[in-house]
Design goal:
globular; single chain; 8-stranded mixed beta sheet; disordered N terminus
Length: 721
């Protein structure tokens, strides 16, 4: 993320209802996150057609990210909605439509590498009052979300998850639904737009790799040095925080502690307090001492061989957060809320914790780091590099990329920086498509040794062109470097070149701030020719020579230090990046607060004339205020034509909805289009109000005002003539 707006692929939205009000919240988030994109809407309630037709607006741009918003009842006929309970017609229609939705998304996802985001939305008022049907729909949504998330390139969310993350008091708008099939309020569309932006954010920003936690008044209430182990309070809130962190660990995030305490005392709390959810075995490392916390974070980064820009630090102290922010600007430092009842919401809205997909390799990450520490101990004991490698008993498997491995290879392509020859970035769907169409061939590299399995740690993507085997990217996880794995992979590529009667293996090297290890490896290949091409260097290696590549460590050399997973320099993220994530976690968790910031950020257009005719009555003033807000105008005069000011049918429907909220009068579409000025709309509203008063109420009102003076009547009517 940067301070400069970055262009992204367009977003194409298809919904079972009129979804255009979600555009403003989406654009608000893209602006805040320094992104620039176009939002397009498919025709109303054509989800299946848009997904299945390759020429549809949703499918026409192969790069456009697809967003599907679904309210299940919109697919049901009146007779299927009639009655109550789980009738046969109701159940059969719901399940048939959901099966067809899964099939349509599978078809669309297979046809395009672009990601799909599917959001289920809550039922309307009538269906929502039927407890049995509502529970059934929730079960069906949950099952379908699980199926959809098993499809490469698809992110899905149930209406229950949406409500949990962004709760809305009033989500439904019956009048707007009646007038224009807009079933939800501005607050709900704000929540929906935020969720969509958040899901899309996970596709462009890597999640954090390390969470570093303070202890006192963070993991527990109290100060260990003063209260002692038994005096600490581990409340349900603190247990929930710890459980949240343990769940992140299961998703592949490394947990560490950084606390100003005696190390033995903290470890005793982890081991002895039975009410602690977070235990020692969940931790990848810790720094518990009296050093500045920024210094300890740098030490943890060095120990884990990870860059500080993948760290999130959480502390209750504003002073400690400020110290880390100043001295480790690469890390995201966050202050835990003072109020315990805000902690759960705060944690749910740290977007850096979101992950598009959790793979088996992610779930094993803490265990992989434990094994790496065992290897490091063995390295220190080995007298020479040759003995260290021999003692590891490495087993290297290089094979064509299997379908089940595509997601992990795509993850490596996205994340690997050090040993990455081209920094080619590709998504799961894009890679799957190119492999399936034979546009690329690929190898996956898996490694194990006496200490355990490294997992899938490397890949090569390549294609035969002319007389050369052209390697699009050659990459390796840093935990496998320095052990000859990369040499085995190049040798395998040389063998493929010979099998295909190709004369050379070409490996492009595109330099970055981090991929020096890949450059060093290519330069170490004796006989490789370097050719400048298209602004970078291509290493051209004769096929025979590549096939004979082997690692021959110095018999007398000491075991080398493990390769760093990131470059040694500490790159500070742009200030806006962490500032925006911090603002989201601290202040933009509630749809009402988000909506208010959207309204505050609007660019207000001057009034249509220098001296617009001022509204006269309270009804006119209310309508003029609503119209000005919807049209982003400083003011709207009582005689201004709303269409001339930029109003369209959706804005008029929103105006009618707001009028009903504030004046308790429901305008019809005929009245909205027939009376497109404030004065005429106000007259229509006043007429409807009068029409709602029966004769006895009118007589009672006249009795009340008969004896009042003109001044008292004007005061009663708010100063109106």
């Amino acid at each position: 993320m940067s301070d400069v707006h970055e262009s992204e692929a367009a977003i194409a939205i298809a919904a079972t209802f009129t979804a255009e009000p979600v555009e403003e919240p989406l654009q608000f988030w893209f602006e805040k996150l320094a992104r620039r994109t176009e939002v397009r809407f498919a025709p109303f309630n054509q989800v299946f057609q848009q997904l299945l037709d390759p020429t549809s607006p949703l499918s026409r741009d192969p790069r456009a990210r697809r967003v599907i918003a679904v309210r299940i009842e919109d697919w049901l006929r009146a007779d299927q909605l009639d009655g109550a309970g789980l009738t046969t017609a109701f159940v059969e229609s719901v399940e048939r439509n959901l099966r067809e939705l899964v099939t349509a998304i599978e078809t669309s996802a297979a046809r395009t590498p672009a990601p799909h985001v599917v959001c289920f939305c809550p039922p309307g008022a009538t269906l929502g009052r039927d407890v049995e049907r509502t529970a059934y729909l929730a079960e069906q949504e949950h099952a379908v979300v699980a199926k959809l998330e098993g499809i490469a390139g698809v992110l899905a969310c149930s209406s229950a998850t949406l409500a949990e993350l962004y709760p809305i008091t009033e989500a439904l708008d019956p009048l707007a639904e009646e007038l224009g099939r807009i079933p939800y309020t501005r607050a709900f569309f704000t929540a929906l737009g935020t969720l969509i932006a958040r899901k899309l954010h996970t596709l462009t920003q890597p999640p954090c790799k390390v969470i570093v936690l303070d202890c006192d008044n963070t993991l527990w209430r109290g100060v260990l040095g003063e209260d002692g182990i038994e005096g600490l309070v581990i409340s349900p809130v603190h247990q929930a925080l710890q459980a949240f962190m343990v769940e992140r660990s299961r998703e592949g995030v490394l947990l560490c502690l950084c606390s100003k305490n005696a190390e033995g005392d903290v470890l005793d709390v982890l081991d002895r307090r039975s009410d602690m959810v977070l235990r020692r075995e969940h931790l990848a490392g810790w720094r518990i001492n009296w050093q500045p916390k920024s210094q300890n974070l740098r030490a943890l980064a060095a120990e884990l061989n990870l860059g500080l820009d993948s760290f999130v630090f959480i502390d209750d102290s504003a002073i400690e957060v400020a110290e880390v922010t100043a001295n480790c600007p690469e890390a995201l430092a966050l202050r835990l809320p003072e109020r315990e009842d805000e902690i759960a919401s705060f944690l749910r809205h740290i977007w850096s914790f979101d992950r598009a997909r959790v793979l088996d390799a992610d779930r094993q990450r803490t265990e992989l780091y434990r094994r790496e520490r065992e290897r490091e101990q063995f390295r220190k004991q080995a007298p020479t590099l040759a003995e260290f490698l021999a003692g590891l008993e490495l087993e290297i498997d290089i094979a064509p990329i299997a379908s089940a491995q595509v997601a992990r290879v795509a993850q490596l392509v996205q994340r690997t920086n050090q040993f990455n020859t081209s920094t080619l970035r590709t998504t799961d769907g894009e890679l799957r498509e190119r492999l399936a169409t034979n546009a690329l061939d690929g190898f996956a590299v898996s490694v194990s040794d006496r200490f355990g399995d490294y997992g899938l740690v490397g890949a090569a993507l390549f294609a035969g062109e002319g007389t050369a085997l052209k390697v699009k990217t050659l990459l390796m996880s840093c935990r496998a470097l320095g052990r000859g794995v990369e040499h085995h992979l190049l040798a395998r590529l040389g063998q493929v070149a010979r099998e295909r009667s190709l004369s050379v293996v070409e490996v492009p090297f595109v330099p970055t701030a981090k991929n020096q290890p890949a450059h060093d490896f290519l330069r170490s290949i004796t006989g490789a020719e370097q050719i400048a091409r298209d602004g970078h260097v291509v290493f051209v290696i004769p096929a025979e020579l590549a096939a004979q590549t082997a690692y021959r460590p110095d018999e007398t050399a000491a075991p080398a230090q493990p390769a760093p997973r990131e470059t040694v320099e500490h790159r500070a993220a742009p200030p806006s990046f962490h500032a925006q994530l911090r603002e989201i976690a601290e202040n933009l968790r509630d749809p009402a607060a988000i909506l208010q910031q959207i309204l505050d950020s609007r660019v207000v257009i001057p009034a249509a004339s220098d001296q617009p005719v001022v509204p006269l009555t309270s009804t006119e003033r209310t309508i003029a205020k609503i119209a000005a807000e919807l049209l982003n105008r400083e003011a709207v005069g009582r005689d201004d034509d709303l269409f001339a000011l930029g109003a369209h049918s959706l804005i008029l429907i929103q105006l009618a909805s707001r009028v009903e909220d504030e004046l308790d009068v429901a305008l019809t579409m005929r009245e909205l289009f027939k009376e497109p000025t404030v004065a005429r709309l106000a007259a229509a509203v006043d007429a409807l109000i009068i029409g709602q008063v029966d004769a006895s109420e009118l007589e009672s009102l006249l009795d009340e005002v008969r004896d009042l003076s003109p001044e008292q009547i004007r005061a009663l009517l708010g100063g109106e003539e």
